[in-house]
Design brief:
The chain has 156 residues and is α+β, with helices and mostly antiparallel strands. Helices cover 28% and strands 24% of the residues. The two termini are 25 Å apart.
């Protein structure tokens, strides 16, 4: 999976207030109603954060990457050590379809309708984007330039 790039000068202000590793770890864990990643490990090194652990599923993994990347001062997320239960299950290793997550950085003037039109060819599908980004988009009418969101795969 390698590195995911984010805008380092945008996002939630968490760094520099104590233990940066713990701050991002708490942000990820508190964004979910249940523990999202077993054995979550977070290591901040300058503008890069490395994540490790076992996520319950691919969507949870992507959301953890987004939460870490939407911290001001972080411009790269390394998720090489963040795996899903499916990835570590011997039965599914060969059968698992590899879906590379699509992240989009919101630009000035963007709307969820416009983003949905661009990626899905249909603006009315924007609720799929909101649902996939509840940890980042708290209000569908309020998105901000520099905010990174994930574009979920459209299942037809």
């Amino acid at each position: 999976m390698a590195f995911f790039d984010f805008l380092g000068n945008a996002g939630k202000k968490l760094l520099g207030k104590g233990d940066d590793n713990e701050a991002i770890k708490n942000e990820i864990e508190s964004s979910f109603s249940e523990l999202p990643v077993q054995g979550l490990v977070v290591e901040v090194d300058d503008d890069t954060v490395a994540l490790g652990g076992v996520a319950t599923d691919g969507a949870t993994k992507e959301k953890a990457i987004l939460i870490a990347g939407n911290v001001e001062g972080i411009s790269k997320v390394n998720a090489d050590q963040l795996v899903t239960l499916t990835q570590i299950s011997e039965e599914n290793v060969r059968e698992e379809e590899v879906f590379e997550p699509v992240f989009y950085t919101i630009q000035k003037g963007d709307t969820l309708w416009g983003i949905s039109s661009e990626f899905y060819g249909n603006g009315s599908k924007y609720p799929l984007i909101v649902e996939a980004n509840l940890e980042v988009i708290k209000d569908a009418d309020l998105i901000y330039p520099g905010q990174a969101i994930r574009i979920p795969e459209l299942i037809v």
